[in-house]
Amino acid sequence: MSMSGRMPGQESTAAGSAPQSNLVTILVPIVIAALGIFLAVKYLLPAIDKNGDKKAPAQTSASLRRAIKVVPVISQVLNRIDQFPGEIKAYQDVAIYPKVPGFIKWIGIDRGSVVKKGQDIVGLFAPELNQQRNEAYARTASVQAQLYEARSKLSAARAQLLEAKAKLAGDDDTYTRTRDASMTPGVVAPNTVVVLREGLAADRDKIKAWEDNVKANQEQVKALEQSLSAAKRSADSYKDIADYLLIPAPFDGYVTERNMHVGSFVGPLGNGAYPPIVRIQQLNLLRIVTPVPEVNSGGILPGAKVYFTVSTYPGEKFWGTVARLGNYLEQKTRTMPVELNYWNDDRRIVPGMFCEVYWPTRRSKPTHFAPISSVVTESTLKTFVCRVRGGKIDWVTVSKGQVMGNLTEIFSDVGAGDMIAVDGTDELQPDTQVEAGPVAHESLPLAKEQRPSYHQH
Hints:
The chain has four helices and 25 strands. By secondary structure, it is of the alpha+beta class. The strands form six sheets. The protein has a six-stranded antiparallel beta barrel with strand order 3-12-15-14-13-16. Strands 2-17-22-21 form a four-stranded antiparallel beta sheet, with no helix packed on it. α3 packs antiparallel against α4. The chain starts with a helix and ends with a strand.
């Protein structure tokens, strides 16, 4: 009955409502999802696009422009002090050797003694030298006696020559008168004239003989005079050699070494293995010898004041004066020896001490300087700095000079005031876009020692 009691329209309505409910259930999520997409598209995408528009240029700039620190190239005069090793020597240093071999008879000095110039310090004894000197005097006396005898013979020959000339004159007068008288017949016998004429010829021969004799005696006298002069010089030389047995001090100084004692046999330098008797050094004036490198030799000024230190007196400065230049370079070390004069009146500094010389290095005109870190050395053939112009990197080839503090000299077409990268590197390729941040030279850290051969201040 109940089933038969429903109306037909009602059944159809119930049957249609079930599919309609299922459709709503399906469409509602779809509409909600579409609405969410619509809202996201309408509101979220513009915001993302705006943020994207803001971030994209920044990311692009960061990828193209790099922030670096730059400093200007400066122009100034190189002025620094380098520390070089030095050697202290006596101004005069003499090892005393004897002129002739002999035995030490007495010695009046010892190590540490003060001597004056000309003071007798050593006396020698050489008995064979006295014998040689006596022989030289004997030879001189013998030659002197021979000379006296030759002069006596020369005088006798001259007297005989004068006598012969006088006889010739008398005989010639007699011959002339007799010849004139013989012109009168019967006054003079004819043979008398002949005898007188032959007598004149004999007189002339005697004169010539005596003249030759005189010349011979003159030559003998001349030879003996030369022999006597040589003998006297020989004797005098032995006298001078005898004076060598007494050795004087060559200058005012101090005895710093003594090797011989009384009775020791000594000889000249190079004559056997004889050491010096003593060594004398001048200590009131010292030589400070320092090797100056080739790169610093151009600024050496004679008369300049330079100070040095010694380990014996730490913290004290001793001032010397540039006195002598070597004017040549040692081939092995490429250094020039330079000497300073130091007046050591108080005798505090002694020869042989090792010292440190604080050498001033200067140039006569300004040059360009850049931080050491700015100079890039890829090889010995390529050295450059990274110059910044118009926000771009430009490699400029340079030559390095001297170092002064944390700066180094550069020589190129880089001018004073040009901005260069503080930290030069080959990673900064040419035409790289950079963001330059200027910094002051004073804010840069000090560079490490660049030259281990000597110190830099």
